[in-house]
Amino acid sequence: MSGKRQLLRAVGTNVKSLSRRVYDTSPEVTAVSRCTYDATTSTQLSKCPFQPAVAETSFNTSSINVIPPAQITRGLEAIPGPQPFPLIGTIYQYFPGGQLYGMSWYDKLAKLQELYGDVVHEAVPGGLHIVHLYNPDDFLEVFRNEGKYPTRDSFFMLRRFNNKYNDGVHGIITSSGESWQKKRSKIQGKIAKPKSVRTYLPGQNPVADDFVTFLRHSRNNDGIVEDLLPELYRYATESIAVVCFNKRLGALEINSKPGSEAEQFINSVNDVLFATQSEMGSLPLYNLYDTPMFKQLCKAQSYINEVTIKNAREAIEYCKSKEIQEDDHEEANLPSHLNNSSLTDKESFTLIGDFFFGGVDTTSNLIGFVMYNLCKNPSKMAILRQEIDEVIGQAREITSENFDRLPYLKAVIKESLRVTPVSAGNLRTLATEATFSGYDVPAGTMVVLHNEWVGKQAQYVPNPDEFIPERWLRNGKYPPIHPHVLLPFGFGPRSCPGRRVAEQEASLCLIKMLQNFDIEYCHSEEMKCEMQIINKIITPLKFRFNERARP
C-alpha cells in the first residue's frame, strides 16, 4: 500500500473512532439528552437512549479516551482470553481442573476480567465466538453497531422448538430481522407506552389485594412465610394474565388444588428457563437430535402454548360478544388487539405466549430482591413506607395519579436492580465491525455487556456495596453515575417491551405489602441466587409478616 493510501486510511479510521467516542459536553446537554456527534461536521448522529442517573448534572466524560488507530488491535485472535481448543473451544475452563470450575456466574465474570481485562474473548462449542465487555464506555458502541434489526442470539433450543413444533413461527424472543420488527411494533402500543400500561391498574389492583389475603393464609402461627418466592410466582402469573387476557387464572385461590393450571404453567416456565440456561454450557447436540433436555423444554413449552391459546381465544370471543372496540381501554385486551392486526392467529398466539412466559419469572424475582434489600436496610424501608403513607395512605385503589407521585419507590427498585439485578447483562450480535477499548471486533460476533459487574465497581458507582436509593433521585445531592452502567431491561429497539408492566406489577405488590405488614427477613442464611438466564433466587425467602400497627 502506498504512503498516500496509508495516510488516507489512518485519517478515515481516526474520524470513525472519533465519531463513535466523542460526546457533547456543553452545559445545556444533560444526561437525559446526551448525544454522539460526527467529529468532522458536528452533525448529531443519535440520541443516547439510556436513563440518566441525575438529570440536572451531566456525567463527566473526560475519562472517555479516543484511541489512536495505531493502537487498535484487530481480529478476535488478538483479544485476550482463555486459549481455545478445537471443537470444545474454551468450555474446558468450566470443568473440574479449569480456572472457572465451581464458581458462581458473577465470580466467573469477575475472574475473567481480573485475568484478561475489559475485553475478553471466548470460543464456544459449535463455532460461536463471544466477546465479554466490562467497560460502560464500550456499551454505547454496541448500541451504535447493532444495526436496524438488533440481533440477540440466544434461546437456541426454543428456536428449534418453534421451527420443529410451532410451524416455524417465532415470537419476539426468537425472531429477527423484519419479522421481529413487525411483531414488536404490533405489541409495543399495548404494553410499552405509560398511558397504555396504566389502563391495567383497575384489573391489577384486586390482584395485589388478593395477594395480601393469600399471604395472611400462607404464614404460620409466628407470622412467617417459609418461602415467599413461590407465592410471588402466583402473584406475577395472576397479574400478567390481566394484561394478556383481561382475566384471572385462579393462581391466588386459597384452597387451590395441586396441579392446577396456574401451578403447571409456573413449573413449565421454570423448565424452559432451566433448559435454556443449560444450552449455554453444553455441546449443541440438541441441533442434531432430541436430547433429554430438549424434550423437557418441548413438553414445557407445549403446555405454555396450550394455556396461552386457550385463554387468548376466550379473550377474543369475549370482546366480540360484547362488541368491545379497540379504543375501549377498560375492556380491550392484548389478544383482541393482535387479532385486529395483520398477524396470523399463530403469530399472535406465539407473541402473547412469549410475553406471558417472560412476565412471570422476572417480576417474581424482582419483587423478591427488592423485599430482601429493604429488610436488610430498614431505614430505607421506613422512608419508602412514609412516602406511601403520605401519597396513598390506606387506600385500596392505586390510581395513575398517585402511582406517578412515588419517586422514592422508583429509586428503591432501581437501586435494587443495581445491587441484585434480575438480568446480569445484555447480549447482542454485531451488525457491523466495532472497536471496544482498543480492540476491533468483526461483524457477526456475539458480545455480552456485563452490567451487573460494572454496577458493583467503585470506579463507576460510589460506595457500590451500600444500598442507597437516594443516588437515583433527581435532586443533585449525589454525584451522577455513568449513564450506561444500569441497563436492567436492555437498551435500544430490542429492550424489554414489558419493562413498564413489570415495574407496575412490582410496585403494586410492594405498596400493598408495606401498607399492611411489618416485614422482616428471618432466614439464618443470606440470600443467594443462581444464573438461569436471569438471576434466580435459590435461598428460601423466609419473611415474617406481622400485621401493621395502626396509629
UniProtKB/TrEMBL annotation:
Keywords: Heme, Iron, Metal-binding, Monooxygenase, Oxidoreductase. Transmembrane segments: none annotated. GO terms for molecular function: heme binding; iron ion binding; monooxygenase activity; oxidoreductase activity, acting on paired donors, with incorporation or reduction of molecular oxygen. Heme binds at C496. Gene3D superfamilies: Cytochrome P450 (1.10.630.10). Its cofactor is heme. Belongs to the cytochrome P450 family. PANTHER family: CYTOCHROME P450. This is Cytochrome P450. The lineage of its organism: Eukaryota, Metazoa, Spiralia, Lophotrochozoa, Mollusca.
